Amino acid sequence: MMLSPEVLTLFILNALFLFFAIIAFYLSLQIFLKWDRSSTCQVQYKLEKQSFLAATIIKYIFMIKVPLFLFFIFTLDKISALLTGAMCAAGVVDATSYGVYLLILKILNLYIFAYWLVLHREDMKEEEQPYTKMKFGVFLVAFLLLIAEILLEGVMFNAIDIHKVVDCCGVIYSSSSGSYLSNIFHLSTPMLLVLFYGTFLFLLLFYFLKYRYIFALLNVLFLIISLITLIAFFGAYIYELPTHHCPFCFLQKEYNYIGYFLYILLFIGTFQGVIVAFLKASKSQIERRYKVALLFNSLYVLLLTLYPIYYYLKNGVWL
Amino acid sequence: MIELKNITKLYALSKVDEVRALDDVSLTVKEGEVVVLKGASGSGKSTILSLIAALSKPTSGEVVVDGKKVSKLSDNFASIFRRDSIGFIFQKYNLIPSLSVRENILLPLVPLNPHAKDAQKKLSEVMEIFHITHKADTLVKNLSGGEQQRVAIARANVNNPKIILADEPTANLDEKLSLSFIEILRELKSLNKTIIIATHDPLFFNLDFVTREIAMHNGTLQL
Fold first, then answer.
1. What single DSSP character describes residue A234?
2. Which residues are CB-neighbours of A264 under 8 A, at least 6 positions away?
3. Which residues of chain A have pLDDT under 50?
4. Where are the alpha helices (DSSP H) in A80-160?
5. Would the CB atoms of B75 and A52 count as touching at under 8 Å?
């Protein structure tokens, strides 16, 4: 078991989340099963009071979970110094078979948490609170995923063996690696770029056509393709090294923390794009989300595009 | 205009002990009516006012004001409702002693962020109606009880609410000031405000402008 101060902090926070989340889960379950907005009986008034308590707990758990995700990455990066072979967070993620699944689960949870916060915000905007039952239903699912995440996190840190030599990001994210991720390097660069810019152009098209389900689906696709192209193509231009493809190293100071900016742009852009399919908000509110999605996704594309152009102008060659 | 439908309100003193402040109360108050709720302390008068003002929620039943189900409003919407529709006069005035008369009266306008000219106009109007213009810059803590009461009434009226709720408004006033307060209520009635007064002060009984007097006992209306 690896117990650095950062890991202990994560464990203590997880224990607190668990405690409060169980209370919120119990209240949410009651609300989900018995909520009847039109009723004026004692049970309904009690549920209305409980809904504020439960929502407050959930809101604060989720609001802390978002920056805690960044702290988790920071922790992985920090403890990489203790693992022989690891140069950054990537080595720690790859040190056990749970790392990748935990990372995927954490990203999935981030989207679900953000979705819950949006639902809650929309719910509180309306006198009739139209999303109350739905948002507590979503929390019931989110709670199970949160528990899975907490358990997996404990299992992962427990499974890290500091005596075992692990791979560095240069090996993990290379075409010679035997990992699942290495398959993306078998895609040709032109194919990757066509997929990346093609999906973005379709996003642009469906932004104007306003087919919200297709727009949301394209955002999911754009998220996946963006992460793949970031690792397989653009990463090399950020590091200015043809063999360096790590999705974590550019979170470090040496690269001006640009990774945080890129990931936040991608997260907000794709999240706002996906959410248009799930909200029954007014036309103007949906339109605002369309605009935010397009703006952040465009900034992401623009920023990534500038890296190879800048490199080419500086060095006169492509990597 | 104001409807209380089968309202029950329980206050929990402990896990096993609770007080039944209102017991299946139903009441309708029409627009422009002046209703006096009278009864001993603990009979449920103040509870009715706090429910109408959406300051608290019933244990069961429903409060409807102008078609709006105020007992079902969330805190945010209840605040907006109070700000727009209710003027509340408290027994202890609930003024901020370190602020001037002008500042106290302007407080309900702050969330609305009105234009300075409009705020000044409203301020001047209510200060004139309630005869406190000459005290505008005096700190509230330096005013007499009667003057503080007038400031409280002015503050309750600065948003021009349709409904005025007064909870034991003359409990801290002598008879002369109480009679002066009653005259102010008469003026408010002439402005077609709906007024509900919770009191056990006999000065309020048998007044010519009062539409109804309702006695309360142990959380029930004695109709």
1. I
2. none
3. none
4. 89-93, 99-125, 132-159
5. yes
- Tell me, yes or no, if A53 comes closer than 8 A to chain B by beta carbon: no
Residue found by looking up tokens 């006069």 in the block = B89
Taking CB atoms and an 8 Å cutoff, what residues of chain A touch B51? none
pLDDT value at residue A74 = 87
Which chain B residues in 161-220 lie under 8 Å from chain A, judged by CB atoms? none
- 66-85 of B, contacting A, C-beta below 8 A: 71-77
Q: What's the sign of the alpha-carbon dihedral B108, B114, B119, B121?
A: negative
Q: What is the pLDDT of residue A272?
A: 94
Size of interface A-B (CB pairs under 8 A): 29
Q: Please tell me the predicted confidence (pLDDT) of residue B171.
A: 83
User: pLDDT of A25-60, one tens digit each?
Assistant: 999 999 999 999 999 999 999 999 999 999 999 999
Selecting from B5, B60, B74 the residue whose C-beta is nearest the C-beta of A42 gives B60
Optimal mutation site among B56, B66, B72, B76, interface A, most CBs of chain A within 10 A: B72
A85, A168 contact by CB (below 8 A): yes
Write out chain B residues lying below 8 Å of A37, CB-based: 72
Half-sphere exposure of B92 (CA within 13 A, CB side): 3
- Per the DSSP assignment, residues forming a β-bridge with B86 are B163
* B74: nearest CA partner in chain A: A127
Residue B222 φ/ψ region, left for φ over 0, alpha for ψ in the -120 to 50 degree band, beta for the rest? beta
Residues of chain A found within 8 Å of residue B62, distances taken between Cβ atoms: 40
Instruction: Please determine, for the modelled complex, whether the ipTM score is greater than 0.90.
Output: no
B75–A42 C-beta distance less than 8 A: no
Mutual orientation of helices A99-125 and A132-159 as an angle, nearest 10°? 160
pLDDT on residue B173: 78
Please give the span between the terminal C-alpha atoms of chain B, in angstroms, as a whole number.
Answer: 19
Closest CA to A119 of A275, A270, A287: A275
**What is the structure's pLDDT at A96?**
86
pLDDT tens column, B91-125: 888 999 999 999 999 999 988 888 999 999 999 98
pLDDT above 70: residue B46: yes
∠ CA A243-A246-A247, nearest 5°, is: 145
Any chain B CB within 8 A of the CB of A48? yes
Testing the interface with B: which of A38, A41, A45 to mutate, by most B Cβ within 10 A?
A45
Q: pLDDT of A159-200, one tens digit each?
A: 988 888 877 776 777 666 666 556 666 778 899 999 999 999
Q: Of B37, B71, B63, B29, whose CA–CA distance to B217 is shortest?
A: B37
Domains, chain B, ordered by start = 32-58+73-222 (3.40.50.300)
